[in-house]
Sequence to fold (134 residues):
Amino acid sequence: MRVDLLPAKLMMILVPSQGFDMQKSIVFYAVILLLLHTAADAQDQSEYEQCHREADITRQVIVAENLPLLDSEAEVFWDLYREYWIADKELDDQRVNLFRRYEESKDELTDDEGIRIVTESFRIKNQRQALKQS
Fold:
């Protein structure tokens, strides 16, 4: 996903001309997340990774612009923030790989393999929920 290909209205949300509009930024972030899930279907892993990186940068800009911190607070916050998003990305990668595994084998999927995929999906979901609560 290239920023220069985004519709003009989305660019106005990302780079507002007069002040920062949190509500519009949340909408933009939701669109980025939707694009990430769409990118999960992409055949090319590099496209998926690029989309993930762009969403990460956008998310960090939104947080930084809306969370004024002292230098001492920023150092602690951004370390925790990065740690959280690294763990979240690992879980998301597992989810995408699980989806791909299902897509590749859905025509020959046995009941046992289907159960393993569903069980793994719930494990990933539970881990993500635990991460959010930590």
Remarks:
- The radius of gyration is 18 Å.
- The chain has a mean pLDDT of 75.
